[in-house]
Structures are given as structure tokens and as C-alpha cells.
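ASSEMBLY PREDICTION REQUEST
Request ID: AP-0331
Submitted by: J.K., bench scientist
Number of chains: two
Total residues: 630
Priority: normal
Notes: Please return the full assembly, not individual chains.
Input sequences:
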Amino acid sequence: MENKLTVGIDIGGTNTVFGIVDNNGNITFRGEVRTAEYLDVEEFVKTISTKIKHFLSNDQRKNLVGVGIGAPNGNFFTGNIEFAPNLPWKDIVPLAEMFRKELDVPVTITNDANAAAIGEKIFGGAKEMNDFVVLTLGTGLGSGIYVNGKIMYGADGNAGEYGHITFVPGGRLCGCGRRGCLETYVSATGIKRNVLQILADTNEKSMLRNKSIEDLSAKDIASFADKGDVLSIKVFQYTGEMLGKAIADIFSIFSPEAVFLFGGLANAGDLIIEPARMAAIQNALEIHKNHIKILVSELNGSDAAILGASALAFQ
Amino acid sequence: MENKLTVGIDIGGTNTVFGIVDNNGNITFRGEVRTAEYLDVEEFVKTISTKIKHFLSNDQRKNLVGVGIGAPNGNFFTGNIEFAPNLPWKDIVPLAEMFRKELDVPVTITNDANAAAIGEKIFGGAKEMNDFVVLTLGTGLGSGIYVNGKIMYGADGNAGEYGHITFVPGGRLCGCGRRGCLETYVSATGIKRNVLQILADTNEKSMLRNKSIEDLSAKDIASFADKGDVLSIKVFQYTGEMLGKAIADIFSIFSPEAVFLFGGLANAGDLIIEPARMAAIQNALEIHKNHIKILVSELNGSDAAILGASALAFQ
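STATUS: Completed
Returned structure:
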């Protein structure tokens, strides 16, 4: 069988990764750009398209069957990115149509978290599952939700914004303009706000005080915690507890086989998973206490996102 | 075609209604018992089964093809009622098997709210919808959720406990043993707790002070509000606002075509729907603000529950 090619593009608030994928799931070309540097979305589309066309030989171009895009607030039904609080482009962006014009193949778009969930289902730890939830802990908190073996898109493609449930009424201001959204507590940016809150609460010494909050990453906090920094451990406990409470609610709502954690924060492993598991069990309904299952995504971060997005194009 | 019969049984925290339903959706016999009076579940099953057998002629008995039961915490996959906080029977009750022994036909059980949603899909306002949510506002708050045209059961039949999400962290004690569950604010019992909270907050005169909280019903509060009782209006505004905030989250999660309200509280109409709609729009994500749709169930209360439960048996 002739080798069919797709392009998978994963757009994050910070970086965009993309690749050319064959029908065996091999990534033959990888690229990356910094999303935030492209205030003009036209330029963003042109830059990526040019790189892809440059890589494909004329021969290969005719094997390209489609493009799949995972993007925050990407709408499967309309092909648009709609009111994405964590992207530089406001209102409605017809991204699928823009890429279609450049690359001349069908373009499918979905929420970046849906793309991650499709990746988990096809290439990762959810191969045998029909009901599961993937939480992507990046700049924001995204959710890709499988119900009865299918991604839940909702009536209009906008389902799955679990990061924007009101988790703390009247709580922290969110990029979406509202207050108390889950992602202001549990995400790569949320954990930094947890750092600030915990540092404000005490004068205790901590390695956390030696780096600007701008430069601090979840990886730094994890490495401080590994070195025994008490407040860094506390930051992970607090973040894990918030995550666990959210997961208890996710079990009440979806009763999934498992909740997968994906993205930077998930790499902190037991530092965040253990407090999350404890809080989830403690806060779950009686009927769910015995089968709370929290797993780390089995997919390698950036490849997973590319593969998940490309799987959209193969579907 | 020979007329096939099913039995639909709707078990609520207060009352249980049941009926014999033919394949045209006509209810040929209706019965009712007070759930709370049956501390012994064996007696409950015997009483209802005897009434049904008594009504069916020998001829009709052979046309009975199945029994469908809607019950709080009813599990579609196991046939059990599992840890229902609002029923007199604790732990795990194998109710489907108990009725099967008495009536000698297949028995299917599900969450009472799922039964209401199936009723709405087959006989009510959701006939053309594939993605919608039914909230049942009774003793508790139940949810029946359609995703991609099918009821969402989750991996183990326990999905859809939306009444038990933690709506107010550290809030009111719930029948499930946890704190702050949505149903402690928004349900027939929740609205009475809102009455107490609002009466505690002021010395203002109100008709609400002339009736014991035990005897007070949502219907009473609505009739006081209609007579211009200021605090009664305030109770509905507060309850509606809580409901609307919950519905904003439901749109973030499910992006349904509509949310249907079912049960006693929904009968208060605009008294509760208008503040709910306003709060839902105010608290929704930008992408959802323009299509928040809150509808009152098109089904007549007790018939709907019987029909919804019986539809399970026909399925």
C-alpha cells in the first residue's frame, strides 16, 4: 500500500509543534515555532506551511492526504479557533480554511486536549478504554473526554472546557475574564500562582524565593522539592490536592475508567500524583472511592501531540 | 401486532410511582407508594409486584416483556442500587434481580435521572437532540446526560451524579456525607435550606416564617412569591442563581443543545428559570453565552418518569 502522509500540528499557548506523519505513525519531519511571537495569524500559517512544503518532495506532496490541528478552543465542527484566552489571536480565526488554502488538502481542527485524548486512545494507554478523560496540564488546563468510545464534542464542538469550571467561587482572575476557574490553580501557570500564594503566607526560607516568578518553571519547583525544599513540596501538595478534588468531581460526572494526566506538570510524577490520588479518594462519592485511577499519559509529550493531531486527519 | 406491555417504576426519595405501559406509550395502570415507609426493601418489592400482578389478567401477563426501573444510584450495568444517600436502603441492593424473581421478566434499572432523560428523548422536548442534559430537581439533584445520541453511563454505570459535584468548597453537609454538593443548594430540599439561610440573615417579615420548615414545600414558596412576599422572591432568585452558575459549568463541560429542568422545582417556572438564565449567561464562557438554552421538561411529571423507566425495558 502506498504510504499516505498527514501533517499533525499542535498549537499551545507557548509553543506550536508540527510534523509529517506516515500511516504507520512514524514522524518523518518535526518543526517548532513560538506561538506567542506570531501576533499575526496569517504569518503563523505561512511560516508553518512553508516549512512543510519545503520538506516534502514533489513526489511526496501527492501522498499528503490531510492536516490535523489540535489548538486551544479549536472547533471540530466549524474549523475555527474561537475566543481562545491563551492564544495571541482574538475572536474567531478560520484556521482550518487558512491552512487548506496553503496546503491544498482537507484540514481538520479540534481542541488540543481532544487531540491528546485521540493520541492516548490510538497510540497510548487508553487503547482498550471507551470512557476516559485526559487532562492536559499546560499553560491552561484542557480536557479531552471519551464517552462510549467517542470524543465528546457537544452540540457545537465546544465541549470539554473542564479547565474553566468555576472551581473556587470568587477565586483567582482567569485569562477568560471570569474568576475561580480550575486552570488558575491547576496548570503550569496555576502552580506558579500557588507558589506566590504560599510564599505570601509565610516568611519561611525557600529556594522558591531565589528565582523570579517569570523564570520559574514547574520543573524548577519539582527539582527544589527533590532537594527537600519544604515550601516546594507544599506547593505540589496544594496543587495535587486541588487536582484531586477536581478529579473526584470528574468521577462523579463521568465515572471514567481512568483519568490521564498529560503535559509538563504530569512529569512531576508522584510529587503531584500522590496528593492528587489521596484527595480524589477522600473527596469521591462512596461508589467511586474504590476505583479512582489516575495515570500519567503513556505518550512522549510533543510526539503525542503531533500524532494525536495527525490521527484526526487519518480518521 | 400484538400489544406488548412493560412496567415502568420510578423510585424517588419520597414517592415511588409505577405503571403498566403498552407499546404506544399509553399507561393502562398507575400505582404509587411512599418509598420512605418501606425500611425493608423486600416488602417494597413484594408490595409493588403484587399490585402489578393483581392488575394484569392471565392473558396480559404473557404480553409483559420487561420491567424498567429508574432509581437514585440505580446502576444500569449491575442492576443494583448502590449507596443511595436519599433512599431508606443502604449499601448495595440487587433490585433488578429482586423484581425479576417476582415478575419473571427481564428487569433493567438505571438512575432516575437517566430514566427522565430517556423519557425526554423519546416522548418529550429532546426528540431531535443528540447532546442534552436533564436536571431532575427532586429530593436531590439528578442528571441524565445524552452524549452523541446516547445516555452517558460511564465505565461502570455510575456516571451522571452532577448533584454531587462540590459546588461550594466546605459548604453544606450533604446526605452523601460530604460538604458543598450542588444538591444541598439546588433541589426541593436545597431550596428549604436556602429559606433557612435567608431567614437567618434578616428580621424582615415574611410568610415563610409562618410554616414549619418540615411542612414547607417549593410550591408554598412559589405561592408566597406570587403574592409578593419579598423574601420568598429572594429565595427563588438565590436558588436560580446557584442553578444558573451550575448550568454555566455544564455548558463549559458538555456544550449541550439545551439543559432541561424536570421535577417539582421546575414547576415554579420563570420564578426560578429567569434568575437561572441570567446567572448562566453571566457566568458562561464567551463561546457559550449566545446559546445558553434552559427549557422546562415537556413531560408531565409522574407519567414521564413511568414512561422513561418503561422505555428502558422496550430498548
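REVIEWER COMMENTS: The CA atoms of residues 119 and 307 of chain A lie 6 Å apart.
SIGN-OFF: pending second reviewer
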